[in-house]
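Because showing beats explaining, we let one protein speak, sequence and C-alpha cells together, and leave readers to judge.
___
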Amino acid sequence: MVDISTPRLSELANAIGIEITGFGDGGCAVECTVAEHHLNLGGVAHGGLHATMLDTAMGGALVSTLAKEEWCATAQLDISYLNAATSGTHLTAKGRVVRRGRSLAHMEGDMVADDGSMVATAKGTWAIWSNRPPSQGGAE
C-alpha cells in the first residue's frame, strides 16, 4: 500500500491501542497486541476488539479512496469469529474495497494473529456522502 496522509483514529481506537500500519490505494491495515484489558470473562479477546479493528481497517480502506470533501460511515458490518486470541497475541486487521459506487461501498476485511491463524473475517457496506458534515470541516 502507498503511504499517503494517514487518517486520524477515533478516540475509541486510540483508547483500545489500535495503530494504523498501512493506508492507501483502497486498503488499510491496523494492528494491536491483545492485553489483559481486552479480554472477556472467558479469558480471550473480546469480540468488540475484533469488531473495532475490522471496522477501522475497512473504513480506512474506503477513506483512502475518498475525495477531500467526501465522507463515509459504516451502514452494515458482518463479522465471522473463527479463532480465539489470547493475551499477548498480536493481531493485524486488513480492509479492502471490493466495489465502490457514488453512494455505497462494499468492503471486506480479515484479521490474523501473529502465528498466521485467521481470527476473523468481515464484510460490510459503507454509505458515502459528497460533502463532509459541518462537525468534520464540511460546509454548512
